[in-house]
Amino acid sequence: MRMVSKNLNDTHRYDDLYHLDYCGSKNHKHMTMMQRAAQFAPFDALSGYKEALEEDSRLTVQKIDLSEEACEKIQQCLLEIQGSISTHPKVCVTYFVEDATKDGGRYVCVEKCVKKIALGKLVFTDKTFVVLDDIMYIEKAPS
Q1: How far apart are CA 135 and CA 138, in angstroms?
Q2: Which has the closest alpha carbon to 82: 110, 118, 112?
Q3: The dihedral of CA 129, 132, 117, 91: what is its sign?
Q4: Cα dist from 43 to 39, 46, 47, whole Å
Q5: Strand partners, 121
Q6: How far, in Å, CA of 8 to CA of 115, rounded?
Q7: What pLDDT is attached to residue 1?
Q8: Rounded Cα–Cα distance for residues 114 and 78 (Å)
Q9: How many CA atoms within 13 Å lie on the side-chain side of 88?
Q10: 137: which residues sit within 8 A by CB, 6+ positions away?
């Protein structure tokens, strides 16, 4: 067993090695600076953790049960739209979209032109639709 001197004045114990040339490894190729730096790149031990936190913190709301008065207003506006459906009237609609992964959902407001009202859906000219039961508010947009 080799004893290492703990003498504080022993600062030159490797002086005999400083003059030697580095000959490299016989078993491994020389690494570029980029390869050496990659060894110290950050490691993401918790991959997906950030996304999981964002998903968990995303807020949802419960669907609001409308009063009879609000339902009547929606029905009246739908009848008015149905009467002028050939002109593809533009409407402002606020409706509920159920969340695919969490309980609840969110309310979305769009302004689009109506193509038809059929099979319990309000179909727009861009081929998207809203289920009539999900509508919270609707009105004809100013032309």
Answers
A1: 7
A2: 118
A3: negative
A4: 10, 9, 9
A5: 118, 131
A6: 90
A7: 46
A8: 10
A9: 9
A10: 70, 74, 92, 93, 94
Structure tokens at 64: 């609001």
Contact 89, 64 (CB under 8 A): no
DSSP 45: T
- Burial class of residue 135 in the structure, from the number of CB atoms within 10 Å of its CB (0-12 exposed, 13-18 middle, 19+ buried): buried
65-97 burial: b if 16+ Cβ within 10 Å, else e: eeeeeeeeebeebbeebeeeeeeebbbebebbe
Q: What is the pLDDT of residue 11?
A: 67
**How confident is the model over 60-94, as pLDDT tens digits?**
999 999 999 999 999 999 999 999 999 999 999 99
State the residue for tokens 């689009």.
112
Give the chain's mean pLDDT: 87
Residue 27 CA to residue 10 CA, distance in Å, equals 34
The kind and range of the H/E element at 15 are helix 15-18
